[in-house]
Design goal:
By secondary structure, the chain is α+β, with helices and mostly antiparallel strands. The protein is built from twelve helices and seven strands. Strands 3-4-5-6 form a four-stranded antiparallel beta sheet. It has a three-stranded antiparallel beta sheet with strand order 2-1-7. A hairpin with a 2-residue loop joins β4 and β5. α6 packs antiparallel against α7 and α8 packs parallel to α10. The longest helix has 32 residues. The chain is globular and about 60 Å long. It starts with 9 loop residues before the first helix and ends with a helix.
Amino acid sequence: MSKLDQLPDKKDLLNSITLAKNGYFMNVVDKNGKFIYSYLPRKNKIQKKYNILRHAGTIYSMLEIYEIMPDEELLKEAKKAILFLLSRIRPVEINGVNAHVVVERDINKLGGSGLAKYISVTGDKQYLPIMQSLAEWMRETQDETGNFTIHKQHYSSGEITDFISRFYPGEAILALVRLYHHDKDDRWLDVAEKATNYLIKIRDKGTTVNDITPDHWLLYAINDLYRHRRKKHFVSHAFLMCRNIFNRQIINNKKNPEWNGGYIPKKSPPKSTPAACYSEGLGAAFNLAHDFGYLRMSKQIKKTIANGVAFQLRSQVLPETTKEMENLLPYIGAFQKSITQTEIRIDYTQHNISGIIQFYKILVKSRSNIKVMFNKIFPSF
């Protein structure tokens, strides 16, 4: 078996996560809590552009690492990044309700943040009131059908743009459900359920396995929401997206075996981040399938993620990479855009690490299940 045919095990995944923790994430946050957003190694150039939603997502991935590998230095870096995020939050009035939004370059967007994860891993609820106020804005943007009517808005004028994101609603739903985990306010579940129903029954009505757009945020959200609101169409929609992902994966490409595990387009080297997002979404769907008895689906999901993560790992900056490019030393553990495109951006590493952590948790869960079954069969051991 060639190295390209080998699937990663728990040790491989922990090595990858450790590299990102001890390398990239210890170097990517500046003194003000802002990330080095994008770096071009071949030009040795840091790009000035920024995206605050990706900033929030990167905090989330750092806290995911902290959850399985507690490290106070990592938490310190994440806290700096949280403070920068908080500095971009502004008050707003909508429909006579006082709320808050995250503002960047006079634009506020629909989306979530890493604050709920911070509460989960630390138990520190100091940011709960601001999370609730952000959720109030989301709730007030929802119309009678369940649609979130504002995806992007000019903060100073209140002008709503015609921009619509395919992925913002799923991220918002996830944020609402995870807020519910901390304050037990049923309003957030009501908004989340209504929004999910809109996406499934109106926006995506009539879509098939061939034309559905897989949405990793929505897969995360459905897994969380279904545990509180058991609607069969939630599961059906999640698995429809999974089947679309299965069909997209590149397998048995003998001409370019290093592409295997990645996803279409098939005529150019696949990128690491789409694969990572699919691993994230499939990881959430695995938990849904596994925990509620859809064993055949959980098996297919696990197999697809394993191939996807094997592909993702080929884009990680390793210590040996720095022998060719010494300027990559601070970026050890980060993820490149693809196996041929060397740009390093915060969301590339965010999604890849989150996808790898999802697979690591699946392997841990699978091993735990085997141990439970063994103890049931051989109780004397």
